[in-house]
């Protein structure tokens, strides 16, 4: 998959950069990466770095308990210290000095910790190193012989001045920034890939759901063979044949290339297009005792230029949401979804109205963001990717149109609960002809 290929590329670039850092310093280094405030969520050390460990560190890591303590100590120092953009010297738990350099590129925090030194011109750090070394015997219950063996290795750790450390680290800083910039670009590409994968998965789910309900409806009629309505069954089969053709068209359009969607506007009769999309959900609505009422202008002039593949995908998502989030009706008191279409002087307007799970006023913009799940939807435990309305907004904007929603509780009570019904309307307004170049989706500032 493309996602895994990008991850492999990122790992290769990271490994190459860390090899360059190790070679430049002649010392081991560890890179910590994080995209959250909690601290590093990934550590990376090359094989070359392991081979560069001083004899003291190799002896420390020979014991599993001491090796685990070293790893924990590194992670803590990468997590709790700030000072982004500054080269700092730290004392490890075993009494040697490491450098630490932290920086942030985009949303990624990078912390480089490495080198094994004893900083000779800093009395305070040397005293701290001596104290930490003396604590090893008590902490790990070392014998006198073990302490002596470690001390000999510890005394052999090379001494270095702070100015020399600064000089060595100059080129390392550039390598780390280069890696950070490459990683930021790859992360952006990965975000696009995730969006396209979710979008395609959502398209399949949106198409499959009404087909599943139509099959259930068909089976119900077959079981009552003495009451077969051949005209009705023929209509269902024709609709499903049409849906399968459109599903295959969608596969051919979307799967060959994630980034090459064919936007081909043509003159379309909007009454027929909307009816075709809405009636695909007739069985699904009927199963929930919901009537689909269409109020569409049938005049010949109710035609505008649209890309049928994109606009139908948008409308399917809107009607699918209306059915999914409507409260169930009963045989005696069915609910109703209204799909309205009318010609405007400068284009065409579509409105879909349903009665059920609502949207709070402060969420009316957020619901069009990829992956956003509204509060009331979460309470109702309605599943989904949170991609439907993001797809709607993207495809409507490609036509040069706009989409918005209104939602208001239908109750006199001041207390809003999970069972409070909302009257929700989603509006789509399209120009008579889309722009020559499809408008890209608007990016909201975070």
Structure write-up:
The protein is an alpha+beta fold and 446 residues long. It has 2 domains: 188 residues; 185 residues, Histidine kinase-like ATPase, C-terminal domain (Heat Shock Protein 90). The chain is built from 13 helices and 13 strands. The strands form 3 sheets. Strands 1, 2, 3, 4, 5 and 6 form a 6-stranded mixed β-sheet that branches. β10 and β11 form a beta hairpin. α7 crosses α11 and α11 runs antiparallel to α13. The longest helix has 62 residues.
Arithmetic mean pLDDT: 78
Number of helices: 13
Shape: elongated
> Between the first and last Cα atoms, what is the distance in angstroms?
29 Å
Q: Strand tally, please? A: 13
H-E string: HEEHHHEEEHHEHHEHHEEHEEHHEE
Cα-atom radius of gyration: 32 Å
Major sheet: 6 strands, mixed
Which ranges are low-confidence, i.e. pLDDT below 50, for 5 or more consecutive residues? Answer: 252-260
Helical/strand content category: alpha+beta
Structural domain tally: 2
- Name the beta content range: 15-25%
Helix content estimate: 40-55%
List the helices and strands and how they pair.
Elements: H1 2-25, E1 29-34, E2 42-44, H2 47-51, H3 55-61, H4 64-80, E3 87-91, E4 97-105, E5 108-119, H5 123-140, H6 144-155, E6 159-160, H7 162-223, H8 230-254, E7 266-269, H9 270-279, H10 282-287, E8 290-296, E9 303-306, H11 308-324, E10 335-344, E11 347-356, H12 375-380, H13 388-398, E12 402-409, E13 422-431
